[in-house]
Amino acid sequence: MKAKHLRNRWLGLLPLSLIFFLSGCGQLEMTVLNPKGPVAQSQYDLIVYSLWFMLGIIVVVFALFTYMIIKYRENRPGRKESDYDPNLHGNTTIEIIWTIIPVIIVILLSIPTVTTLFDLEKPPVPAAGEEEKEPLVVYATTADWKWFFSYPEQDIETVNYLHIPADRPIEFRLSSADSMSALWIPALGGQKYNMAGMMTTLYLEADEEGVYDGRNSNFNGEGFAAQTFKVYAESEEEFNAWAEEISNEAPELTAERYDELLAPGLTDVQSYSNTHLDYVKHHTREGMGYVVEKYREQFKEKLHLYEIEEQESFQ
Amino acid sequence: MHITDILVTGEPIIYGAMVSMALGGLAILFVLTYFKKWKWLWREWLTSVDHKKIGVMYILSALLMLFRGGVDAMMMRVQLAFPDLGFLNSQHYNEIFTTHGTIMIIFMAMPFLIGLMNIIVPLQIGARDFAFPYLNALSFWSFFFGMALFNISFVIGGSPDAGWTSYTPLSGAAMSPGPGQNFYLMGLQLSGIGTLATGINLMVTILKMRAPGMKLFHMPIFTWSTLVTCFIIVFAFPILTVALALLTIDRIFGAQFFTLTGEGLPMMWANLFWMWGHPEVYIVILPAFGIFSEVIATFAKKRLFGYNVMVWSMIVIALLSFLVWVHHFFTMGAGAFVNSVFSVSTMLIAVPTGVKIFNWLATLYKSKIEFTVPMLWSLAFIPSFILGGVTGVMLGMAAADYQFHNSYFLIAHFHYVLIAGTVFACFAGLVFWYPKMFGHKMNERLGRWAFWLFFFGFHVCFFPQYFLGLDGMPRRLFITNVAEWLPLNVISTVGAVGMALGFVVFVYNVYYSFRYSERETTGDSWNGNGRTLEWATTTPVPYYNFATVPYVDEIDPYVRMKEEGKTTFEEDEVKPIHMPSYTGQPFIFMALLGLASFGLIFEWMYLAVFGLIGGVVMMIRRSFDYDDGYYVSVEEIKETEKKARGL
């Protein structure tokens, strides 16, 4: 009966390996494991580096575990008297070994973690042979539940979509008009928080042209699922042409229009030929309460954003 | 005020819940009245200060909460696997994941473990009850009323919806008006009193009431894990108390500690929350380690390998647990240096934890493994927990965490450690000590079914979520709105169904075993393999626990006691035993504080003030309480013991 039970255990592992297999097939398409820029690349390298250690640990522990539960089960046929030692309770040498090995692993993992951390605070270094470019500054501000991208250099602003030149570092200056959110474009690199009354800096860069998904990854209420945006990474010329076009053709963002946009709710994609930075600075102590004070009454209402279910659901 | 202003309206699911709660409540009232059990309920349970009964009440409440949190989980899984069904809207989903997280941590995992500690720790150290039995009852009722408050929120007033972390400014009065968040604050605050009191109570019990001769390093490992946990509770919970109080003052009295206006510091909440929150994680995992150590040693029929190292590694983990809280928000932009420090301190926790894993494996070396149900849960823990542990180290690498944070990778990680760690331990511990508590074992065959269903369900549910995270799926997303994420979500939901079935079989097993299991005749229920003192006394345990407390000067004292034929009933040494009297005061006291909290939630200040004054009156009443308990006579002890031991 015991043997049958053990066989069941192995049979049971089949569905597990199936998941492994399925997931393995999909791996090439997983965004984080398919980096499209130097920042995402450095994080990918770190993840893959750590995965080797983790796999090693898993293999060792699983092997030891399997050995123990097979060899030392009570009614294994052919158990020997020497297979049982109830008073064995320690072995200094082996205990020192299995303390030191994890310490070494932690050191080996810490070194690249720390160096990567410091690298991520600076614009990505250009690949060998390429000239260093000044980062493009983009203010990314969130308000429930939308994104404002202000380009001070070009003096334009977009809502809920982002254009960036490829092969040039982007310096995002993150802030929020109300709740805490986070800018995450997994194809280009990890996230950082947007917080009212503060400004955080995040460097990202695309080294391949294309359209990527970006979103707020930090839960902030009812419209959270809809707070996404598309990132259009294009050549420097295309980007300049686009900026030029917005600058010439898009309407002006007046203070009144901006206030309307700040009200909690959802909006579609929009473009303006100036930025909101002249009106209110959400990252300052003075500006951090601006939206909450202005829209106190609206925040009291449950929005029940049924439209996002219809809009977002794929059929 | 009209009734519809208070009751939650407009949700068919909630109407259904209301009806079933009303019917369930009526059924309980009917049964109690019909069988004339009201007096029994009050005398034997509500006024009890017996640690064993309080422990049973803790565990029953925790199982009920496992059901509630599990239903929340199933609703989320249905919504994510069938996004086109329109089953839950955004608001409803947000409420459900908030209550799921809060209930599972605060009202399920902790009370389950505290329930086991309540019953087992005094028995393991040869004590007759807690150091402060009155306080113990008070702890339970504070938890109970806190839990009740939190759970009525979804029918009265509306559930909290800002996540179990309740980050400000989202959870502040401006962006989350209404009673929902107040339910979270007051529910946690009230039950937090109980947790803190239990921490102090158990700490004193363990330090002062051990059997004669028992040094700290003779204590069973589960008692050790409890002691270490108590220190974490005593240092961590005051932080939560203060944070909750500040946010309550913000929300109800208009202060500006965490607000966006008036120079508030919303990020301070995240810091305070995790200064408590990270140690909290170890409050629920260290006792689990203790349980696994006991079960593995018992069914390996062997001494625990590296006892001293096991103890020291727990102490190191407890110390480190206070030094890693920033890893919950590496992405806040604290800078490379700060993140580096917390990255390294986080990864260091893997060292003592890894050492413990190797010690468990070494305990299995040259052992005789018997695959009982508690052993199955404990063995399954090792490989499952490793998967959660290594991904924890990956999350600890701050630079990589920028990609993992807020994603399903994180969700998969903490469910792997909390379920494979804490939940497996709760099941292992409950099945292991079940005969001690109820006088009969749980059915093995049904137990295996429950285990295998839950075990495979668990892996099928959470393993795919690592890959969802790597594909960029954020947590707390109410709708699967990217087509590539759907297949893995469907697999995940299938797994969740497996876990639910496992739970159903487990609960059925409670009933089945009550009806059909053989009653225990000996105290040493697991084929005489018990190693520690709880197995030395009879089953069911007499209310005074031990007629005579043995002299202990080693680890696993019961092994030698059996060899030498000693028992906990040495007839010549029996002396009268001092026991505490039952009292209804803790129940009434906490009911009054519950009323005050309810008043604060709805900002009905008269009710709040009335309840608080009632609480103060109860404290004064207690101060003039001269009931010193009573003595059990030698004759009664001898009679009870002879009957139980068949002498």
From TrEMBL, chain A:
Topology with respect to the bilayer: Multi-pass membrane protein
Record-annotated membrane-spanning stretches: 51-70, 96-118
NCBIfam families referenced in this protein's UniProt entry, alphabetically: QOXA
Keyword tags: Cell membrane, Electron transport, Membrane, Oxidoreductase, Respiratory chain, Signal, Transmembrane, Transmembrane helix, Transport
Name of the protein this chain belongs to: Quinol oxidase subunit 2
Reactions catalysed according to its record: 2 a quinol + O2 = 2 a quinone + 2 H2O
InterPro entries reported in the protein's UniProt record: CcO_II, CcO_II-like_C, Cupredoxin, CuRO_UO_II, Cyt_c_oxidase_su2_TM_dom, Cyt_c_oxidase_su2_TM_sf, Cyt_o_ubiquinol_oxidase_su2, QoxA
EC number(s) given by UniProt: 1.10.3.-
Top-level enzyme category: oxidoreductase
Chief place of localization: membrane
Compartment(s) where it occurs, according to its Swiss-Prot or TrEMBL record: Cell membrane
Organism: Pontibacillus salipaludis
Family: Belongs to the cytochrome c oxidase subunit 2 family.
Span of domain Cytochrome oxidase subunit II copper A binding: 133-245
A Pfam family reported for this protein in Swiss-Prot or TrEMBL: COX2_TM
Function: Catalyzes quinol oxidation with the concomitant reduction of oxygen to water. Subunit II transfers the electrons from a quinol to the binuclear center of the catalytic subunit I.
Ranges where the Cytochrome oxidase subunit II transmembrane region profile domain occurs: 24-124
Domain of life according to the entry: Bacteria
Automatic annotation (TrEMBL), chain B:
Superkingdom, taxonomy of origin: Bacteria
Residue ranges occupied by any Cytochrome oxidase subunit I profile domain in the UniProt entry: 36-553
Main location: membrane
Pathway: Energy metabolism; oxidative phosphorylation
Coiled-coil regions listed: none
Signal peptide (from-to): none
Membrane topology label: Multi-pass membrane protein
Catalytic activity, reaction form: 2 a quinol + O2 = 2 a quinone + 2 H2O
Cofactor binding notes: Heme A3. Binds a copper B center.
CDD domains (UniProt xref): Ubiquinol_Oxidase_I
Localization per Swiss-Prot or TrEMBL: Cell membrane
A Pfam family that the UniProt record links to this protein: COX1
Membrane-crossing residue ranges in chain numbering: 12-35, 56-76, 96-121, 133-156, 183-209, 221-249, 269-292, 304-326, 332-355, 376-400, 412-434, 446-468, 488-511, 587-620
The UniProt record lists the keyword Hydrolase: no
PROSITE patterns membership: COX1
EC number: 1.10.3.-
Cofactor: ferriheme a; Cu cation
Protein family (similarity comment): Belongs to the heme-copper respiratory oxidase family.
Function: Catalyzes quinol oxidation with the concomitant reduction of oxygen to water.
Listed name of the protein: Quinol oxidase subunit 1
Organism of provenance: Pontibacillus salipaludis
